Amino acid sequence: MPGTMEPINIGLMGLGTVGGGVAAALSNNAEEIQRKTGRTVCLRRALVRDAGKTREPAPPAGVLTTNPEDILADPEIHVVVEVMGGDSPAGEYLERALAGGKHVVTANKEVMARRGASLLALAQSQSVNLLFEASAGGGIPIVGCLMSQLLANDIRSIRSIINGTTNYILTRMARSQTPFAEALSEAQSQGYAEADPTNDVEGIDAAYKLSVLGSLAFHQSIPHEAIHTEGISRLGPEDFRYAAELGYAIKSLAIAAAQPDGTVQARVHPALVPEDHLLAKVDGVYNAVEVTGDLCGQIILHGQGAGRDATTSAVMGDILNVVRFIDSAGPPPLLPVPNGRGHQVGNSIRPIDELSSAYYLRLTCADQAGVLAQIARLLGDGNISIATVIQKDTDPGSGTAQLVITTYPSREADVQTALAAVAKLGVVVSVDNLIRIEQ
Amino acid sequence: MPGTMEPINIGLMGLGTVGGGVAAALSNNAEEIQRKTGRTVCLRRALVRDAGKTREPAPPAGVLTTNPEDILADPEIHVVVEVMGGDSPAGEYLERALAGGKHVVTANKEVMARRGASLLALAQSQSVNLLFEASAGGGIPIVGCLMSQLLANDIRSIRSIINGTTNYILTRMARSQTPFAEALSEAQSQGYAEADPTNDVEGIDAAYKLSVLGSLAFHQSIPHEAIHTEGISRLGPEDFRYAAELGYAIKSLAIAAAQPDGTVQARVHPALVPEDHLLAKVDGVYNAVEVTGDLCGQIILHGQGAGRDATTSAVMGDILNVVRFIDSAGPPPLLPVPNGRGHQVGNSIRPIDELSSAYYLRLTCADQAGVLAQIARLLGDGNISIATVIQKDTDPGSGTAQLVITTYPSREADVQTALAAVAKLGVVVSVDNLIRIEQ
Ligand SMILES: NC(=O)c1ccc[n+]([C@@H]2O[C@H](COP(=O)([O-])OP(=O)(O)OC[C@H]3O[C@@H](n4cnc5c(N)ncnc54)[C@H](OP(=O)(O)O)[C@@H]3O)[C@@H](O)[C@H]2O)c1
Ligand SMILES: NC(=O)c1ccc[n+]([C@@H]2O[C@H](COP(=O)([O-])OP(=O)(O)OC[C@H]3O[C@@H](n4cnc5c(N)ncnc54)[C@H](OP(=O)(O)O)[C@@H]3O)[C@@H](O)[C@H]2O)c1
């Protein structure tokens, strides 16, 4: 460890959107950082792929490198800040950094979802800190809240809107009845969606983040592969219209909920949310996380889940906290609580089939008498009670009508089985959508 | 410090609403606490005023005491948890505890507002922790966010709804056009307001909390006496009606905002809030804090600002954090950042006269031609531009009408001066209300 008067040296891995923000904050706010931590903090090296790229502002001479050894093998670097992204090689670099006794700050949701447990164990054994506030909520301070302020709670559930791209698209679709493809390309041209939007619109990014948050909240591993994940591409403008009629907004939610039997239900999918719930009012690129605990009740954190500045806020907060703690001996204090429940990885995730939820179902049917009776019988046979029925958008040309049915809470497997039978009815043209309803 | 295998002993000061919750959590969650902190945590003593009171559940034999020395002079007590309330003797007890090398957790906003700076300095010099999460937002994790996750930000402003009683009353007034006195007695019978509601409805409780939050956010002392404080008793049902017509809700806000000249504007008063702002949707006993920082942008934390369980969540969180850190040597890591700006206490608070704000003004005037012209002239002379005018509720009996005027942003002193002149006009019966408008 550096002497108390010596500067703390940072090795930055990645100098893109977030890395650029961190480098700027380290240099522009040097005096504030000194005041807040009692230490001088210096950017010593910044790792990039392409040293020839024009960067604005240009990093000071000698800082840029394309060789990870310049950071990993430098004993004068005390803190590695990883903002490269991706599982590999970032994950291996972080292992090496921790093994070498360096503190680590990362914004990387994929690496924390895939290797979080082993990286944290390594940090603990090395008595160094591994902080990752930016990895699961961007600028929303949820990771620290779960690790620290809300630690005394038995967390019951997390329900969150944690993908800005998806929420931007859904907000557009809801406001202007824009079809999905159009809203997506609009988001791309505005810089809110990447050229390959798969990770965002298919819910993969949200599943990584939910894995990080769920692991912290429930003190057990929530592997992202075990999270039931659905994207938003099946939603049509009519779903937003019908949902609004029923008093709901449509949001893509990432949900993890403790079950009475000790398992955790974890899922990412579009959901109907009552329009007077605060989650229904999270618009555009804003994100929000609702946490329900036995003591704290329902807490909602609302803010920017991505973007250069907001993410820099979280990464810099972690850096400042590492620096403030760098002289304290003893076990690394900021590590999250290890899994105390003895669950095996993955064993404790409840399959989506076992979900109990209310459902919104949209079907295209023949526009003739007796159709609803046939469908209702099949649902009833499957133990599914109908709450409301809306018949809409009759199309005299094709002789079809849209039928929207909402159910009382039912078992997912029963609903899926009944729907498969409904789809085979002669009078049913297509089962167009199934959306879970959250209360 | 206790050996790593020995239990950490708690001395609880106060066993009322919050103290009862803390005692219950310590006993019911003993195993979880052990898992989360790696230590056994025991309630050793609980100080009360009246040892004869029936308590549910009854504390274990030997725990209850009416003698503070049983806690302060006991070297086996490592952490003092103060949930008595009031400035004295609580403040003196905390000084003694810290001076004696004990860690302290408190939920006491008054003591932190009045003596926070000196208590924190004492804790620092004694290398012990002083945590106070529950003191300024109940169950909302705002204190820790300002100290830790948002630490890298230059905080621009805090706008908050941090008194549950007031917000409950205002929500009732808005929903059912209930007059203030009626809504207050309803809140009292529901247990949401105390028999003497002064501290809550006059904004004093909110000013204590704002003092705590502002001092953390702006790294300087924000004495509660320097905070401009107005209660809610002047609001009438008609104000809610007119506000709604103009597209606003009325909320009691506690606001602290950094000014370009380095001073801080700090005030507690009713305000018009645009109805589509999330702060307008904070209803009943829920509270919310909006923080705006240079990096994080706008963050809103929404949750329960009071109540036994929510407050226990915050106090227990602090206790668990103290215990997790109890073995680490070095400077106490969780202390907030000391004032680095060298401001003198109180010197840096900008007087309310210098506020620039839009205003809502309600007047009762003679119902005759030319009245508005006279008023508008006086406002114009005072550099105040009118944004909207509503003339309402003509009373043919008395020959009067209600006039509601909103202004563009103007200087508070100019508005007060002009209003004094307006009040003297022969055609003006009374100036009934002035409410600031927040955007
Ligand atoms: N952007 C956000 O809003 C946001 C929000 C929350 C979390 N995050 C996370 O933050 C991390 C960074 O995101 P970003 O948006 O800043 O990414 P980015 O703009 O693509 O920047 C990535 C940076 O890492 C460098 N890099 C990538 N792979 C490398 C390799 N193998 N070796 C050396 N350098 C490499 C790149 O070098 P070149 O400059 O030479 O290409 C670039 O400087 C990701 O984990 C992301 O999930 C981002
Ligand atoms: N209640 C909330 O929702 C809430 C929320 C946030 C923060 N807080 C803060 O938490 C603190 C406690 O609030 P509370 O609602 O729990 O108060 P409370 O119900 O009135 O309980 C106060 C307790 O302290 C004891 N006590 C008071 N003065 C004493 C003295 N001089 N010597 C010995 N014991 C004394 C009382 O003893 P007896 O039992 O013998 O009367 C009682 O047990 C206050 O600072 C409050 O501002 C409360």
TrEMBL record, chains A, B:
This is Homoserine dehydrogenase. Gene3D superfamilies: 3.30.70.260, Dihydrodipicolinate Reductase, domain 2, NAD(P)-binding Rossmann-like Domain. Belongs to the homoserine dehydrogenase family. It is an enzyme of class 1 (oxidoreductase). Its EC number is 1.1.1.3. It comes from Geodia barretti (Barrett's horny sponge). The lineage of its organism: Eukaryota, Metazoa, Porifera, Demospongiae, Heteroscleromorpha. Coiled coil: none annotated. Pathway: Amino-acid biosynthesis; L-threonine biosynthesis; L-threonine from L-aspartate: step 3/5; Amino-acid biosynthesis; L-methionine biosynthesis via de novo pathway; L-homoserine from L-aspartate: step 3/3. Residues 360-436 form the ACT domain. It catalyses: L-homoserine + NADP(+) = L-aspartate 4-semialdehyde + NADPH + H(+). Keywords: Amino-acid biosynthesis, Methionine biosynthesis, NADP, Oxidoreductase, Threonine biosynthesis. Pfam families: ACT (PF01842), Homoserine_dh (PF00742), NAD_binding_3 (PF03447). GO terms for biological process: methionine biosynthetic process; threonine biosynthetic process. GO terms for molecular function: homoserine dehydrogenase activity; NADP binding.
